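WARN retry 2 of 3 for item q-0093 after timeout on previous attempt; input resubmitted unchanged.
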Amino acid sequence: MSGVRSGICRNQCFKQCLLVLALWPWSPVHGQELSLEQAEAQALLRDPAIEAVQSRKTALDELEVTAGELPDPMLKFGVMSLPLDSFQLGQEPMTQVQLGVVQRFPRGDSRALRAEQFQERSRALDKVIEDQRLRIRLAVREHFLDVLKQHRLGVINAEAEGVFADLAQITQDY
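OK item q-0093 returned
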């Protein structure tokens, strides 16, 4: 159980680091403030997990199309009763050369059912993508509030520093 928790913690830490790196160019240190909507948009735009799930969904959509199709026909070639000592087709009257096309037809509705199975998996991945987007938005909002809180605390501390400097000056004057 602790292995699962440590994996989750590492995953969350990794995502937080990615978020900080994604938002770094827009931080107030660089002179441009970042709104919550901009932060969310940047985090959603740069998330590799969403891109990975989207790629899997695209692959499942392609498999859905191919699952509903008939399998490719196969070309069949064979030689029967070929004399192995001379390999001449006319030596024995029983020598036969066969050429044909083989097409498999799956039983029942298996093609349609398999295509429906891929379609359902693709729909499930839509929900995974939406869940990932909501998790990213939640993380961005939490971090945004943390940054805003730290910024406000810095302003309060700067004001308090000025007040205490004035207080120290007043106490030294008496």
